[in-house]
Each structure stands twice: as C-alpha cells, then as structure tokens.
Amino acid sequence: MSYVDIEVEDIGAVRRIWHNRPAMRNAESQNLLDELDDALVQAGDDHAVRVVILGGRGEHFSAGHDLKESREKRNNLTVEERYRYEQKRYLDYCLRLRDVPKPVIAQVQGACIGGAFMVANMCDLIVASDDAYFADPVVHSVGASAVEVLIHPWVLGERKAKEFLYTGEKIGAEEALRWGMVNRVVPRAELEAATLTLAERIAQAPLFALTITKRSINRSVDIMGQRNAILAHFDTHELSHFTEAFKSTRPASREEAVAKGRTAVA
Fold first, then answer.
1. Residue scoring higher pLDDT (218 or 255)
2. Alpha-carbon gap, residue 14 to 72, rounded angstroms
3. Is the pLDDT of residue 169 over 60?
4. Phi, psi of 101, deg, nearest 5
5. Which of 25, 95, 105, 203 has the greatest count of CB atoms below 10 A from its CB?
6. Residues 34, 28: Cα–Cα separation, whole Å
7. Residue 253: band (very low, low, confident or very high) from pLDDT cuts 50, 70, 90
8. What per-residue confidence (pLDDT) applies to 93?
9. How many other C-beta atoms can be found within 10 angstroms of the C-beta atom of residue 195?
10. What are the pLDDT digits (tens) for 94-125?
11. How far, in Å, CA of 63 to CA of 43, rounded?
12. What is the percent of the chain with per-residue pLDDT over 70, rounded to a whole number?
C-alpha cells in the first residue's frame, strides 16, 4: 500500500512510522488513521521488524481528530453510523495498536491532544521532547465524556486522570514524567536520536522474548480490567454525543471548535 498521510522508514530492525500532515498539525484524518492501522499491521507481521516508533513530522506529534474533515463529512451521521465509524477507527484501531506483537514507542513533540493522546498512550513507551504537552479538553470544549478510548486512569492514575479531564488543562512533558505517563524526556533537538537509541537497545533482545513479555504485561493489566474498562467507556462516550449538554456545548463551526480547544489547553 502506498501512503499519502503517513511515512514509513526502516532503520535496521526498527520501523519508524510518521504522521505526515505537518501543515495540519498532523490532525488524524480518516485516511491517516486507515493508513496508520495498515502500517502497524504490516509492521506486526514483518519478522524483520523488532521495534516500532510512532512519530509526527513537523512541530507537533498530532493535534488529534481532524475537526475540519469531521464537520465536512460526518456532521449529520445517525447514531448507528457514528457508532460504527468511531468503533472502527478509534476504538478498534487503538486496541490493535496496543496489541501489535512487538514494542511500540511513541515519539512525541509539541501537541499531543485528544485523539492523539489516546494513540500515543496505547503505545508501550513514550519518549517526549521537553516542549511536548498533552491534553484532552473535550469535556469542556464539546461536552463529551473524554475521548473514545479512556486510557487516562491507567497511565495517570485515578486522581490525576480526574483532574486532567475535569479541568481540560494541559500537562507538560516533565509533569507527565513525574506521573509515570512518559518514560523519558529529552531536549527537542535530541528527540529523534534518543528515541531511536532506545528502540535499537530494545531491538537487541530476541523478538519472541519481546513479544511474549509484552503479551504477559498486557494480560496482567487486562486481568485488572483495562480492556473491559476501555470498552465500557466507549459506550459512555457515544452516549454523551446525544445529550442536551453536547448539543448546547458543541461548537457551531470548525473554527470555533479549534478556538475552544486551544483556549482549553492554553
């Protein structure tokens, strides 16, 4: 498959997949998500690949869902149509990312907002630049119940996840490191090299050992309820789209949505 909105490169046993819409702050359009899912499946199936890096070209990892495209193409979906679309491209794609049978490292700089927050946090590790920031402002900006995949309490803890979602405020890389959501923080100029160095270190281990170790750790948190909690929240999130609060809070235009989001994470 040839790609338009992502870029793929191999560096030895490491495959780096880039969000590649820098002019749009790497907003995750339908096509980008479809391409990303395809590339991740291929990386999982390729025995020459031992570690995957997921990054973003340009100034930002990703500003999240493509709000302009959503307004233009999916503004009047039925309940059933919205559910099917979001189940496939948000819930199912994220769970498949989580289950890629080899380590996946998110390489994050600049903005990592909303849908991008859940994508980055479904990766096994996060290396962030010192200017990276994370936000999920949708409770305030559109009256929805967080983004579709509620990974937040699992990566931030209950108290911090509640503060993060209740306020809609952003957290910087250093704070995310203190809370255990981010593994390493490095200067922006060193992000690409530092992430690759970590990936190459991991890739020295036998692939089968990496695969079964990842599977065991994922199963451990699933025994604690992670997957079922994520599935339960998805239905809650979908319900929130049809509340009076959502109807009254939802911005009337793409420009207003962007402005509200930026105000929330300022």
1. 218
2. 37
3. yes
4. -80, 40
5. 105
6. 10
7. low
8. 98
9. 26
10. 999 999 999 999 999 999 999 999 999 999 99
11. 24
12. 93
Is the pLDDT at 52 greater than 70? The verdict is yes
Pick from 84, 139, 149, 86: which is nearest to 116 by CA?
Answer: 149
Confirm if 103 and 124 have CB atoms less than 8 A apart.
Answer: yes
What is the rounded distance in angstroms from the CA atom of residue 88 to the CA atom of residue 86?
A: 5
- CATH superfamily ID and name for 6-190+207-265: 2-enoyl-CoA Hydratase; Chain A, domain 1 (3.90.226.10)
Q: Are strands 104-108 and 125-129 parallel, antiparallel or unpaired?
A: parallel
The structural domains of the chain, with segments of one domain joined by +, span 6-190+207-265
| Token output for 257 | 């949505």
> What are the structure tokens assigned to 225, written together?
């309820």
* Residues 94, 56 contacting (CB under 8 angstroms): no
List, edge to edge, every strand of the sheet that includes 133-135: 111-113, 133-135, 171-172
pTM of the model: 0.93
- Give the other-Cβ count within 10 Å of 73's Cβ: 13
Q: Is residue 177 exposed (0-12), middle (13-18) or buried (19+ Cβ within 10 Å)?
A: middle
Q: Where are the alpha helices (DSSP H) in the chain?
A: 30-45, 67-73, 79-86, 93-98, 115-121, 138-141, 152-156, 158-167, 173-178, 191-202, 207-223, 226-240, 244-249, 254-265
- Torsion from C-alpha of 95, 96, 102, 105, nearest 10 degrees: -60
β-strand partners of 107: 127
Q: How many CA atoms lie within 13 A of 24 on its CB side?
A: 16
5/21 Cα distance (integer angstroms): 6
- Model pLDDT, residue 266: 56
pLDDT tens for 175-227 read 999 999 999 999 999 999 999 999 999 999 999 999 999 999 999 999 999 99
